[in-house]
From TrEMBL:
This is Yip1 domain-containing protein. It comes from the Bacteria. Pfam families: Yip1. The keyword NAD does not apply. GO terms for cellular component: membrane. It is a multi-pass membrane protein.
Amino acid sequence: MILNHLWGLYAHPKEEWHTIDARHESFRYSMIHILLVALIPSICAYYSAVHLGWSIGVGERIFLTAESARLMAVAMYIALIAGVFALGLLAHWMAHTFGAEPTYTQTLELASYTSTPLFMVGLAALYPELWFVMMVGLAGLAYSVYLLYVGVPILMHIPEERGFIYASSVVTCGLVLLVVVLASTAILWSSGYGPAFTH
């Protein structure tokens, strides 16, 4: 089963990381996991933008046209997948500095499983209140970071002290990737590729 580690990462993360480390699934397995989990925020965001409408506080709900929301959902899906692969690549590149010798598949596993709680936050878009999505988003981010700190020493086979510094470096890279995605979005929107709203 493709998502067989999902429950374990929430119920008993440390034991689940040991299970992941013992099995070390193929690159294809990790890729399918990413492709499936990244659908959650994309589909939920599309549905809420077209059918439910977003509430950002005061005023009426904001709706997007179906075509505009579809384009944004596809762009989000591609950006999420590219972000995970880039994070895996950066984690692989940095591993040698901290005395680890993982394969790219191992660092991709690390990136894909630690990003899973963040992607699951997409379910919050089915209740499209900005404050609610932000609160759930912060919780998802915090748990993703926690999974990273727990998983790095186990998957990379390095001491916890070194693993802490390595995980902190990966978090920094993840934040830089997030800023790049947000800046790219702002540039595209200001260039005329912004969303189309319905009234």
